[in-house]
């Protein structure tokens, strides 16, 4: 019964966020990594849900579900939240991490938005890895509301644990795009 209640609450939050805010599906390609994501309400005030997956052939995968709250601060949109992450480093044990962090978005004129975010999970909130670090910054062009194009820089690192090496899943520039509904 308890699991059913938790699943019902999670589904209610997801549908509330999806019905009140835009849905976006995005992808990014870097030199050594690929990133795919989906977001519900990530560009408007209020509750935001996100899911993402990042893959690197040499260093492994990271998949995550995020929950945040967007707060308008003058021209900025600030996000405070957390992510539950599944980690599968190429050299190391698969596990999980609970990361906390946030981000900022700043619209410039009507076409461009500067954005950045950072999430961190210490060793005490991680299993199979040491610390988890993720940073992302870039600029987004929205020429028409349905489609956005972005360029930026992403860094995602899984610190090794128990003698395993560190895995840098993403460290470099990317080009990406999104479809918004």
From TrEMBL:
In terms of Pfam families, this protein maps to: YfaZ
- State the name under which the record lists this protein: Porin
Whether Transmembrane counts among this entry's keywords is no
Q: Which domain of life is it from?
A: Bacteria
InterPro entries for this protein:
OMP/PagP_B-barrel, YfaZ
Is-annotated flag, keyword Isomerase? no
Q: Which residues form the signal peptide?
A: 1-22
Look up and give the organism this protein is from: Rahnella sikkimica
Keyword terms of this UniProt record: Signal
